[in-house]
Amino acid sequence: MKKAIILLSGGLDSATTLYYAKNQGYQTSCLIFDYGQRHRREIQQAIKIAKASHSDYKIVKINLPWQGSALLDKKIALPRNRQNIPKGIPVTYVPARNIIFLSFAASYAEAAGAQTIFIGANAIDYSGYPDCRPNFYQAYQKVLNLGLKAGVEGKTIRVKTPLIRKTKASIIRLGLRLSVPYHLTWSCYQGGARPCGVCDSCILREKGFEEVGRR
């Protein structure tokens, strides 16, 4: 069976990506990152989602002592109540996060003999992160082709971004068809026991569910 590494955050997009990969016939192994994020609840939920999908999972702990993001530094206030999220890179951007995550995934994929890495990046309904854009993934694919033994030997490990051009509503519709357990997902940037409902991630999630007639 073909193997895939899934970057699983515990959020709506990554959970949908996991179930999409399984639907495509992949044997899925999930990478869950503990990078000091204030919303640590997502780690717990990612584990539950991996188990629900009958996927193997590994938790990778990374220390980013320089912080540089509101998700890592509680002294930096999270954006709140932004119904129209402006263009530009917000304070929730974590420097080079997806580059770091994908590098771990590439190493894992090559060691495990996986042919594909899936990531739930989205460039439509998102917060403006530069590492969520299609041209970034096109460039990163070239890096893997040149920098991995697998690539040099013609056994390219592919990075797939099945959600990258979908709206949040269309992602949710796809997930509902795939029976994604959305009740297990966690999107909120706050570290509370319940979603705050006012951070960018909560607002995008609510908007998507409202558009498909779900709450």
Please describe the topology of this protein.
Elements: E1 3-7, H1 12-23, E2 27-34, H2 41-52, E3 56-61, H3 97-112, E4 116-118, H4 134-147, H5 149-152, E5 158-160, H6 168-177, H7 200-211
Helix pairs in contact: 1-6, 6-7
What does this structure look like?
The chain has one domain (3-211): Rossmann fold (3-Layer(aba) Sandwich), CATH 3.40.50. 37% of the residues lie in helices and 12% in strands. It contains seven helices and five strands; from the N terminus they run βαβαβαβααβαα. The protein has helices at residues 12-23, 41-52, 97-112, 134-147, 149-152, 168-177, 200-211; strands spanning 3-7, 27-34, 56-61, 116-118, 158-160. Helix 1 links the parallel strand 1 (3-7) and strand 2 (27-34). Helix 6 (168-177) crosses helix 7. It is globular and about 50 Å long.
Outline:
The protein is of the alpha/beta class.
Question: Key terms for this structure?
Answer:
215 residues, alpha/beta, Rossmann fold, 7 helices, globular
CATH superfamily: HUPs
Oligomeric state of the chains present here:
single chain
CATH T-level fold name:
Rossmann fold
Structural class: alpha/beta
How many helices does DSSP assign?
A: 7
| End-to-end gap | 37 Å
Order of strands side by side in the largest beta sheet? 3-2-1-4-5
**What's the alpha carbon Rg, rounded to whole Å?**
17 Å
Sketch the topology as an H/E string, one letter per element. EHEHEHEHHEHH
